[in-house]
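2024-03-11 09:14:02 DEBUG pipeline.ingest accepted 1 chain
2024-03-11 09:14:02 DEBUG pipeline.ingest length=373
2024-03-11 09:14:03 DEBUG pipeline.predict start
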Amino acid sequence: MAKKRDKTGKVLMKVKRPARIGFLSFLGDVQGCGTIRVMYPYLLLNHIREKDLQFNTQYASSYIGDVNYYKSFTFVQFQRSATDQHVKLYKHYKSNIQSKFKIPLIYEIDDLLIDIPEWNYASPYYKSQEENVKWLMENSDGIITSTPRLKEIYGQYNKKIEVIPNHLPKFIWQDIYPAHDYYKEGEKVKILWAGSQNHFAMPEIIGDEIKGGDFGKELIDYIKKTVDLHDWILMGAMPEELREVKSKITFHPWENIFNYPRKLKSIEPDICIAPLEDNVFNSCKSNIKSLEYTALGCPGVYSDVLPYKAMTLRCKTDVEFIHYIEKLAVDTDFRAKVWRKDHSRISSQLYWEENNNLKKYANTYLGMFGQKL
């Protein structure tokens, strides 16, 4: 029987498909990317029903020292690890477990941990752990990141590095109800920003001498001027510069990540905004906000930075930001048009359960070591 060959004449080897794939992940973050990138896809993978294929996915927040516990796993992963203790656990795994079972050790990361802006409250902590982060990456058998830009930067620490983009769990976010369909004429327009406090300089954490944040001065001033015109809604955190008008802003504290989609949808915003300062740290971020806002059925106004290059309304300046906010506020047809464009541009990425995204997830890991589904 003639052997199959590629265009160069090289014999094509048949790639073995594993019948059982086991993932074990030790989580460093259970209220953010650890949930989005590990817990949700693991839950969904365990429920895939396909002939001759079975997934066994498990996660834990504490290390397991029993060597025999690991024998059924295909991959073992540490998510967002950075500390001296993580280095010790890596060394234990490599000398006691990997030496017996040869299971690849993967480092999973969704953020840039080595060039965080000084105004970000996480900067001092990760600066102190920078050498640990580099060591962990260098001593991993591979790295999984969320964006091509992260792959580019972290590629200096490990050559075996692949990208798995973020997706939302549709079973939680449910169906989309476009905001322009339920807007009532005469009501204040609801403008939403949702995010964590690391988007702003937090004086109570880093002191008054450090300034900065993802909201520009002109945008801050515009919000102050229009608190009586629009219903400004902030969820998760508030810039210090807006404290003087706090009583006129609708503020929702951060929610547990499992309650977050329900809470966000209950707000029923008309417009969403996602300003980001143009810096290296933000260029590495994923487009998770654009996924969330689109799943809310809302048109978004975004900074013209790498994570949002696919979105319709992108702004290089606060003046552009304000222009688009005002145009969306008065024109419901424009809102509908923008949301439809946004949705069409990222619909294939939106949910884990669609577009074969779960199989792509598994194949990314398998492909690093010469296998595939």
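2024-03-11 09:14:41 DEBUG pipeline.report The chain has 15 helices and twelve strands.
2024-03-11 09:14:41 DEBUG pipeline.predict end
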